[in-house]
Amino acid sequence: MLSTLNQPQKAALQTKTEELSGSEIVLRALIAEGVETIFGYPGGAIMPIYDALYDYNDQLKHILVRHEQGAIHAAQGFARISGKCGVVFATSGPGATNLVTGLADAQIDSTPVVCITGQVFAHLLGTDAFQETDVINITTPITKWNYQVTDASEIAEVLAKAFYIAKSGRPGPVVIDITKNAQIQKVPFSGYQPCNHIRSYRPKPIVRKEYIQEAAKLINEAERPFVIFGQGVILGQAENEFLKFIEKGGLPAAWTIMGMSAIPTDHPLGVGMLGMHGNYGPNLLTNECDVLIAVGMRFDDRVTGRLDKYAKQAKVIHLDIDPAEIDKNVKATVPVWGDCKETLPLLTELIEQKTYSTWLQKFEDCKLKEQQKVVVPELNPTSDIMTMGEVIRVLNELTEGNAAIVTDVGQHQMVACRYANMNQSKSNITSGGLGTMGFALPAAIGAKFGAPDRTVVAVIGDGGFQMTLQELGTIMQFKPAVKILILNNCFLGMVRQWQQLFHERRYSFVDITSPDFVQVAKGYYIEGARISKREELKDAVKKMLDHDGSYLLEVMVGKENNVFPMVPQGRGVAEIVLGADEV
Amino acid sequence: MSKQEYTITVYTENQIGLLARIAIMFSRRKINIESLNTSSSEVESVHRFTIVIHETEEVVRKLCRQIEKQVEVLKAYYNTDDEIVWQEVALYKVPTDEIAEKVKVERLLRENGARAVLIRKDYTIFETSGHRDETDKLITVLEPYGLIEFVRSARVAIIKNSEGFHKKLRDFELREPGEEVVENEYLGDQEHVFSM
Prior knowledge:
By secondary structure, chain A is α/β, with parallel strands linked by helices. Chain B is 31% helix and 34% strand.
């Protein structure tokens, strides 16, 4: 194992006992874990750690964000694009509470993040001391694990556990709250031992061959099998195993928003996206397949619509690493517990090589219908008003599907995920489960640090951008080349769409005004442009992509465009509609 | 599926904060905890929660999976009342003069399986253990004599067909555990599962 480590990692692992402060042990632990980038913000209760960081500046890169929420979203973006663990520093009290949204987001989207928060001196705990807050109890429901350290001798072991828990099994966020006295305290330190076993924690359930066999039998007997997959394929680094599985079985496969990019979006067996604003065929045909094979996904309500009208005719095979997901929302006929990197090859071996041309034709027919009614007018509109879809089409043409696209939440998110082309895994970074507006800008900053060689485009709405635009300051200072593409419809578009369709057009507080975004960017020394005419679109996007460094492009799009198809809330997936006239 | 009483037994590491982590799993789902007891177990270092709720089997099963998912939880079981032996302890404080004058203390104790744990001039404390209806009965008996104070403990329960946790714990400590650790409710139930 040692041979795979870099020089600082080796140095940190050496077992010479020395007297170190808790703060320095924190930094040694991070180096030993291979951490290179930290997103953080200093404050009173974490000052000893920042003081120690002053001497480790050459080994650990610290990105000073403008708000702790920005730090954790950046760490999420970093983790999502790199497959590594994101690391955050924040101080006690408000510093820690500002992490809450990001923690909830990372928890529901299974993103590995370790947050280290400062805490008041141990003797002040519970006294309502300055900037004291009960971080452990606040973050308990939104962390995979959390722990408060009050003695420096615990730090190395606790951090080893933190990284192990955050990254293994179904990943998730971990908070380690360290009191100031523990940061200052000096204790003997004799090297860092990574953790790889905790007796009360089983990251992966044992694979049971009998269920693999039953699953293979169901697939082999199926006439209309349908694969639906989620982020589990990406988190399990099982993209190749998954491709072999669907290619051997000739199985049509649709992705959830979180599973997007696990296979290239133009793969012949990729039939599109599931969910409320997913593609027509995958939703409709969920209720026509005879065997539904769910891989690393959790049957979110945005995917299933009404559960009592969801795939009732199908036998369900559910592959998941988290036993608590099996039967949670949809009853599995065959539960395949385990890491899909292990279970998929076992299953592939047992399934027959097949093609289902009649069944695949049904997806084609649905695609054609969706093309005519929705896709063509969205991507190649005939009116003068620009659509979000055509901006994404131009982006596809210019990036050739090689960019990583970070989206915020709302209409632009649905449009980007519906139409963006992606050739490689980990290209779709979005807030799926929590739907956190304000996610995209900081997440894109983190993503650029996580994959400096990739083009990172943050697609953001005019509403979401105003939630975390302070992070332009982080871009100004640390210069990650993030391309910011604001799709401005002068509305909180998704809520407006619902108000139009389900609340008789009573537009209640969705009419949001914006500052001059280009001027705002200019204030941060970031170049930018605003366009409102189609003739300017291609050149403007090209200029944004070609620009050396960050760039902000604001595109004025139609104010009252809607995203379709749509499975209206409370309806079954087969009740998907292609336009407002069908709602 | 109808609701009934379930006793959930959770084996955990002994760690601060775990009670809150487990308790919020119930409150998040709007499930009322009827009784909750924490204690040590037969294994040193392993802690045991006994939780009573009134719910459907499906809800209890999913809940136990979610509880078991917590890092410091070793195992969560759920059982109906006929699968466990359970007891609750109750204490009753009554004025001694009332008892001495009006009731034959001896008979009262015998009939209710109670014993006097403290007798003072001013008051006497009785203790009994049993099921809810048994401890309730003594309240009714003592009320006419000026019951001053009453308290009942949470349920403690032992699963009838459990072999204890010693053996299982060894399995948990192994890196490659046996099948016991990751139990699958479908095991041995395949005919039922594949009957759809």
